[in-house]
TrEMBL record:
The protein's required cofactors: pyridoxal 5'-phosphate
Top enzyme category: lyase
PANTHER family for this protein: TRYPTOPHAN SYNTHASE, TRYPTOPHAN SYNTHASE-RELATED
A GO term, aspect molecular function: pyridoxal phosphate binding
Superkingdom of this protein's organism: Bacteria
Described purpose of this protein according to its UniProt entry: The beta subunit is responsible for the synthesis of L-tryptophan from indole and L-serine.
Lineage: Bacteria, Bacillati, Cyanobacteriota, Cyanophyceae, Nostocales
Protein name per UniProt: Tryptophan synthase beta chain
Keyword Lyase among UniProt keywords: yes
Pathway recorded for this protein: Amino-acid biosynthesis; L-tryptophan biosynthesis; L-tryptophan from chorismate: step 5/5
Family, similarity comment: Belongs to the TrpB family.
Length: 453
C-alpha cells in the first residue's frame, strides 16, 4: 500500500520545545534598548511580556519543557499529519518525493496557535488580564483570539487596514471568540493618529500595527503584548512542528534532502526547519538544503540589509539585528498579508548570515498558480502565505525532473485558504499583479536605519 499520511498518537506529541540557540556556532547579536541604545535587560521587557517568556527569549537550553496545561490544549489538534504528496508528484511527473506537514487542522486553521496557546498560558498565570497584538492576514489574530477564549483573557487586535477590508471573515472569526478588532492605523493611539495625520489614506503595515499594540500594552499594568512571529520564544514554540515531523519521517523510512518554508517574520520556517538544522549542526544527520521563500513584494531576506532596526514604525520596540527593509517601509497590499513585514526574525536572520539557509523571492502570481496546482492534486487549498512554500517545493521537484535525480522534499503547509477566497477570486479574474521594488526604492527605505555605535 502506498501510504499517504503519517500519523502520531497524542502520547507521541513532543513534551519539550527545541531551542536552536543551544547549537549555534556563533551566538546572536545582542538586543538593544530603543531609547538608550544600550544592552536591554529583562526588566526593560517586563512591561510587555511575562517573565517566563522573557526567560525563554534569552535561554540557551536545548530543550524547554511544554507545560501540561499547554500540552492538554495542543492535543486538541496535535500531532498534525504529515502527508506524502503522491498525486502532486504524479502531476509534476517528477522523480522527487514530496512530503508536507499540514498545520491547517488547528482551530484557527494555521500554525499560529502553537505559540498563541503558550503565550496566553504564561500571561494567565502571571496575572495578565488583557492582551494586545497586531495581525496581518488575520491568522495570528485568530489564533490569539482562540487562546484568549481558552484562558479567559481579553484580546485586542490591531489589524493592518488593507487586510481588515480584504478579509472580513477573518475579522468575524476573531470577534466570534470575543476579541476586539481595530483597523490599523487607528485613532485610538498616538502612533496611529500620527500616521493618519501624515497619511490619511494609509493602508497600514505590521510595523504600524505593532506600534499601536505596544503603546496600548505599556499604558496598563494588567495588559501585556503578544507577538505572532519574529521573537525567539515564538520561533521556539513552533518547533513542535519539526519535532513531530522527524518522528513521522522515521515512520516513513525517509529523510529530507531539501526543506522549504515561507517566511514573513520567520515562525513558520523556523517551526519546520530548526529541529533539522539543529541535527545538522550537531552532525547527527545528513546534509540538507534549507530554502526560505518570501514575497518579491516584501523582499526582506533577498534585498534587505542585515542591520540593527526597530521592530515597529514608531520605534517603541527594542532594536534587534535582522534583515530589514527599514521600519518605515510600507509594503504593497498583496494578499499574503502575513508575509508583509519589514523585518525578519533576528534568529532566522542570524542563521541565514551563517550560510545555513538559502532565501528566495517569488511574485504572487506564480505563488497563486502553484497553490491552485497543489489544490487540484492534493485537495487542500493553501493560504496565500503557504503558497510561497508550495511554489518553492514545486520548483525543487521540477529541478529534480530536469536533472533526473530523486530527492526528498519537505515543506510546511502552514494553513488553509478558506478565509482567503477573495484572493483566489481576484487571481482567477486577472486582477492581481506582481510588484517588485527597485534598488533605489529599497535604498530610500533603508536610509532611516538607526545608527548603532
Amino acid at each position: 500500500m502506498d501510504t499517504i499520511k503519517y500519523l502520531l498518537s497524542e502520547n507521541q506529541m513532543p513534551d519539550s520545545w527545541y531551542n536552536i540557540q543551544a547549537d549555534l556556532p556563533e551566538p546572536m547579536p545582542p538586543v538593544l534598548h530603543p531609547g538608550t541604545g544600550k544592552l536591554i535587560t529583562p526588566g526593560d521587557l517586563e512591561p510587555l511580556f511575562p517573565m517566563q517568556l522573557i526567560e525563554q527569549e534569552v535561554s540557551t537550553e536545548r530543550f524547554i519543557e511544554i507545560p501540561e496545561q499547554v500540552q492538554s490544549i495542543y492535543r486538541q489538534w496535535r500531532p498534525t499529519p504529515l502527508y506524502r504528496a503522491r498525486r502532486l508528484e504524479k502531476a509534476l511527473d517528477t522523480p522527487a518525493k514530496i512530503y508536507y506537514k499540514y498545520e491547517g487542522t488547528s482551530p484557527a486553521g494555521s500554525h499560529k496557535p502553537n505559540t498563541a496557546i503558550p503565550q496566553a498560558y504564561y500571561n494567565k498565570i502571571a496575572g495578565t488580564k488583557r492582551l494586545t497584538t497586531e495581525t496581518g492576514a488575520g491568522q495570528w489574530g485568530s489564533s490569539l483570539a482562540v487562546a484568549g477564549a481558552f484562558f479567559g483573557l481579553d484580546v485586542e487586535v490591531y489589524m493592518v487596514k488593507v487586510s481588515y477590508h480584504q478579509k472580513p471573515y477573518r475579522r468575524a472569526f476573531m470577534e466570534s471568540y470575543g476579541a476586539r478588532v481595530i483597523a490599523s492605523p487607528s485613532n485610538e493611539t498616538e502612533s496611529g493618529r500620527k500616521i493618519l495625520q501624515e497619511y490619511p489614506n494609509s493602508t497600514g503595515s505590521l510595523g504600524i500595527a505593532i506600534s499601536e499594540a505596544v503603546e496600548m500594552a505599556v499604558q496598563d499594568a494588567e495588559t501585556k503584548y503578544a507577538l505572532g512571529s519574529v521573537l525567539n520564544h515564538v520561533l521556539l514554540h513552533q518547533t513542535v512542528i519539526g519535532i513531530e515531523t522527524l518522528a513521522q519521517l522515521e515512520m516513513a523510512g525517509d529523510y529530507p534532502d531539501i526543506i522549504v518554508g515561507c517566511t514573513g517574520g520567520g515562525s513558520n520556517f523556523a517551526g519546520i526547519a530548526f529541529p533539522f538544522i539543529g541535527a545538522k549542526l550537531r552532525g547527527e544527520k545528513q546534509d540538507i538544503n534549507f530554502v526560505a521563500v518570501e514575497p518579491a513584494a516584501c523582499p526582506t531576506l533577498t534585498k534587505g540589509k542585515y542591520a540593527y532596526d526597530f521592530g515597529d514604525t514608531a520605534h517603541l520596540t527594542p532594536m534587534v539585528k535582522m534583515h530589514t527593509l527599514g521600519s518605515t517601509f510600507i509594503p504593497t497590499g498583496i494578499h499574503a498579508g502575513g508575509l508583509r513585514y519589514h523585518g525578519m526574525a533576528p534568529l532566522l536572520s542570524h542563521i541565514v548570515e551563517l550560510g545555513l539557509v538559502e532565501p528566495k523571492a517569488y511574485g504572487q502570481l506564480d505563488c497563486f498558480a502553484a497553490g491552485l496546482s497543489f489544490a487540484r492534486a492534493e485537495g487542500i487549498l493553501p493560504a496565500p502565505e503557504a503558497n510561497h512554500a508550495v511554489k518553492g517545493a514545486i520548483d525543487e521537484a521540477l529541478r529534480c525532473k530536469e536533472e533526473g535525480v530523486s530527492k526528498t522534499i519537505l515543506f510546511n503547509l502552514c494553513g488553509h485558504g478558506h478565509f482567503d477566497m477573495q484572493a483566489y477570486t481576484d487571481y482567477q479574474a486577472g486582477l492581481l499583479v506582481d510588484l517588485e521594488y527597485s534598488s533605489e526604492e529599497i535604498g530610500m527605505a533603508l536610509a532611516g536605519l538607526p545608527v548603532v555605535g
